[in-house]
Design a protein that fits this description.
The chain is mostly beta strands and 63 residues long. It contains no helices and four strands. A four-stranded antiparallel beta sheet has the order 1-2-3-4, with no helix packed on it. The chain starts with a strand and ends in an 8-residue tail after the last strand.
């Protein structure tokens, strides 16, 4: 089973045609051996200590 980890970023500004970004959270995508998504979890700095899910985490998902 594979877990993909993606950083969440928010645009904080723009100056002289350059964009500025801050990391604001992490997205975890858990997949089964066939590559199908089994669960998605989000951790965001606006909600510390809160795990948000698009699909509930399963007992066999690894972090």
């Amino acid at each position: 089973m594979a877990t993909e980890i993606m950083k969440l970023k928010v645009k904080t500004g723009e100056k002289d045609g350059k964009n500025f970004w801050d990391d604001c959270g992490v997205l975890f995508i858990n997949r089964n051996p066939a590559g199908e998504i089994t669960s998605i979890q989000v951790r965001h700095n606006m909600f510390p200590g809160v795990d948000m899910v698009a699909f509930p985490k399963r007992n066999d998902d690894q972090e």
